[in-house]
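Problem: given the chain below (390 residues), write out its structure.
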Amino acid sequence: MPDHAPQPVDRQLPTDEARDLISLVRDIAQREIAPKAAEEEDAGRFPRETFTLLSESGLLGLPYDAEYGGGEQPYEVYLQVLEELAAARLTVGLGVSVHTLASYALATHGTKEQRAEHLPAMLGGGLLGAYCLSEPASGSDAASLRTKAVRDGDRWVLTGTKAWITHGGIADFYTVMARTGEDGPRGITAFLVPGDAEGLSAAAPEKKMGMKGSPTAQVHLDGVRVGDERRIGEEGQGFAIALSALDSGRLGIAACAIGVAQAALDAAVGYARERRQFGRPIADFQGLRFMLADMATQIEAGRALYLAAARLKDAGRPFAKQAAMAKLHCTDTAMKVTTDAVQILGGYGYTADFPAERYMREAKVLQIVEGTNQIQRMVIARHLAGPETR
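Solution.
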């Protein structure tokens, strides 16, 4: 690999505490995550010890209240932490984003008693979460989900199958959306299900193009019984909670995408400065220099877009449209930048000896998860032109 180490991203951070936090994350990323990323991804190994370290370092609950073990950081800061982690290894960055998504329902809609009982362990006690909305027959059309929760006295009995669940089979808790009432979005309720609940199991992990170290699996609920105290929010409120969580989660995906794109750009620049053809570094050739310039510009634009959306969220203003824009632009950017990085490395870019091909494979899934980019365009268009006529 080239000897030129990439320069850290020059970040605009709101406080000295945030700058110290980014320094801590960079140290962990460089020391504990990046050196093992390629080998562990190739082996399909999930780095649970890394998540334990992140939990012990206070990095698994950054946007949530300090009262319950969170870091009480603004999204503007939290997302830049995700970007740094994803640049080192997407399995880690995306895993932190999914854990934050899985904690969202309880953190924002749980009762004070529920939060006091569960959140400290979820945010800083070494636990890992999963978010269960999609099903084999309801992905983009999430409101048509069929997993049922039937009341039995003071308990609920959950039955159904969830699909495409990150951390499926290894999570310590699952935030599950299940149908408790009528068809459509008004009949869905959220539940907090422990990972060791009787009747809960996971299928074998999916065999994926990329992110092989991050298990994605179907989760089966076969008569899983949970007490009413594990219902989050009111009956029928689950779909609204799920959509609210996804608005925030899409910002996490956007930040992860820019992290992957930045890593690909760094690899391409380092290679271009070292690789010599026709008696000089290939970075001297204008066609390639323009490619690098375009890659860097799109990354900076994506970073600015997700941070602008985050600042709206931090200010308590509507940000759903901007979150969809950020997810759309940043993940499309990641796909384009990683593809160009492979091209710049030429034949070497197509081999597993260099990281560009891994970045390219990983970038693709970011255009799909937490709402495909076609869904993001629908969301943006609804904000612009109103809902579609039926």
